[in-house]
Amino acid sequence: MDEFPELLRKKKVLFTAVVCFIEFLLGIPFITQGGIYLLQVVDWYCSTFSLMILSLTECVVIAWIYGADRFYSDITLMIGYTPSSWWKISWRFITPLITLFVWLFSISKLSPVTYGDYQYPTWSIVFGWVLGMVSLVPLPAVMISQIFQTKGTFIERVKKLIHPDPKWGPALPQYRDQYIASLSFSDRQRMLRHIMENEKDGPHDMSIIGEHAKMLQLQLDSVC
C-alpha cells in the first residue's frame, strides 16, 4: 500500500482480505497429515542459509552504506530522545559478526534434509534449495534494475545508488527541517547537487530540503 498508495489505499480492506486469503491457502499444506514433512523442508533451507544472508546484507547496508551515524540520527528523530551509543557499536560490529558466525556455522553443518529416520527424495531437496534461493532473488534483481534505470557511467550509477534519494525523509516540513539539520555537510551538499543535476525535470522543490538546505544552495551557487 505504501508503494502504490493511489491504487491500494482506497481499497485497503479488500487488499488486506485478498492477501490474508492467499496466505491462508499457502498455509493449508502445512497443517495436513504430511504437513510436518513439508514444514521441515521449508525450515531446513529457508530459516538458516537464506535468512542469514538477508540479515547480514541488511546489517552491512544500514551500518556501512547508509551509515550507522545517519541511522542513529533517524532513530533519535523518530523516538524523540537520544538512545545509547552502544547501538551504533552493535550495528557496525557486534550484530554483523554474530550473524556471519551463525551463517558460517550453519553452512558447515548443512546436510540434506531429514526428519527422524525419514530420508527425503532428491526432488524435495532440490525444491528446498530453490525455495531458499527464491527469497534471495530480489536482492540482485532490484540492484540490476536500479543500475539500468540510473543515468551516467557505471561508477556514477553505483555512487548515486548507495546514497539515499534526496526526497528521503519525514513528510511534514517541521520534521524535515530537523532531519536536514541532523545531516552532515557532505550529505546536504550531495542532496543539493543531485537536485541541481536533475533540474531538467522541473524547478527545484525547495520545500523538500528545508531552510538549512536553502542556505547551502546559496553556498553551492557561489562556488559553482
From TrEMBL:
InterPro entries: Na/ntran_symport, SNS_sf. It holds the Pfam family SNF. It is found in: Membrane. One of its GO terms (molecular function) is amino acid:sodium symporter activity. Keywords: Glycoprotein, Membrane, Transmembrane, Transmembrane helix, Transport. SUPFAM superfamilies: SNF-like (SSF161070). It is a multi-pass membrane protein. One of its GO terms (biological process) is amino acid import across plasma membrane. The chain crosses the membrane at residues 12-32, 44-68, 89-106, 126-148. One of its GO terms (cellular component) is plasma membrane. PANTHER family: SODIUM-DEPENDENT NUTRIENT AMINO ACID TRANSPORTER 1-RELATED, SODIUM/CHLORIDE DEPENDENT TRANSPORTER. Belongs to the sodium:neurotransmitter symporter (SNF) (TC 2.A.22) family. This is Uncharacterized protein. It comes from Acanthosepion pharaonis. The lineage of its organism: Eukaryota, Metazoa, Spiralia, Lophotrochozoa, Mollusca.
